[in-house]
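Researcher: Following up on the earlier apo prediction. This time include the ligand. It's NAP, with the SMILES given after the sequence.
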Amino acid sequence: MNKTILITGASSGIGEATSLYFAQQGWQVIATMRNPEKEKDHIKEPNIFVTRLEVTEPASVETAIQQGIQKFGKIDVLINNAGYGQQGLFEAVSPEKIQEQFDVNVFGLMHVTRAMLPQQLRMARIVCGTWPVLILNNW
Ligand SMILES: NC(=O)c1ccc[n+]([C@@H]2O[C@H](COP(=O)([O-])OP(=O)(O)OC[C@H]3O[C@@H](n4cnc5c(N)ncnc54)[C@H](OP(=O)(O)O)[C@@H]3O)[C@@H](O)[C@H]2O)c1
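Model: Understood. Below is the ligand-bound prediction.
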C-alpha cells in the first residue's frame, strides 16, 4: 500500500519541492498551505491532495488532518515545514514580531505535532524543519 505524507507550508520552497518529490516517488501527499485557492502546480498531480492548514489555528490543523485521513485512509509521515526566518539586529525587531514568529515556528509546530500524536502512536514519523528546531524522530 502507498505511504502517505502530510507536509505543512507546501505552497513554496522546501515544502513545495518536497511534496512534488514525494508525489513523483509514488507517495500519497497531503500538501497543506494557508491559501490553497492560489495553488496551481500541486493540483495537477493526481496523488496530491491540497488543503488549507494555518499552523496558528488549531481548528484548521485538526480539519486538515481529518480531511487527509478521509482522502487517503492514514498518515505515515508528517513534515513540520511551515515557518520562516527573521533576520536583522535584535534591538530592531519588536517583541511582537518575535512573538509572531514563535507562534508560527514553535507553537504552530506544537499544534500540528500534538494533533498528529494519535496517528504517531500507531505508526507515523514526524520531521520538524523550522528554524528553531530540526528533529528527525524515529525516521
Ligand atoms: N531555506 C533555508 O535555508 C532554511 C534554513 C533553515 C530552516 N528553514 C526552515 O525551513 C522551512 C521552509 O523554508 P523555505 O526556505 O522553503 O521557506 P518558504 O519558501 O518561505 O516556505 C515557507 C512556507 O511556510 C508557510 N507558512 C508560513 N507561515 C505559516 C503559517 N502560519 N501557517 C502555515 N504555513 C505557513 C509559507 O506559506 P505562505 O506561502 O502562505 O507564506 C510557506 O509555504 C521554514 O520553516 C524555514 O524556517 C529554511
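Model: Confidence is low (pLDDT under 50) at residues 132-139.
Researcher: Noted. I'll compare it with the apo version next.
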